[in-house]
Amino acid sequence: MPRTKVIAKKDLLPYFKKGDKVTIVPILYDEDTVIVNELHGLFKNGNLVWINGSNWNGGLEKIADPQYAPKGSYKDSYIELEDGRQYPNSIVRRYDDYFDKI
Fold first, then answer.
1. pTM of the predicted protein model
2. Do the bridges between strand 4-8 and strand 99-101 make them parallel or antiparallel, or are there none, so unpaired?
């Protein structure tokens, strides 16, 4: 995901106001990263009754492999104003609600 230039379509004071030009900057993973560990579960009479992130007691069955985010995949993003100020993406719920792509 490249840096994306956008224009604010409504105010979100004190961060930016309608008409301000900002950039959405992606943050990517620097290396392959485990985002969900391997999962193990305890089954009784064919039903899953307990899930654990490790096989610490040896009696659990593996139910899921670890999940990885590959290097270079999207992790997060932030909002950068023309004057260099940066804000986390959490100040807006959805980019589409506040910005139009230039």
1. 0.75
2. antiparallel
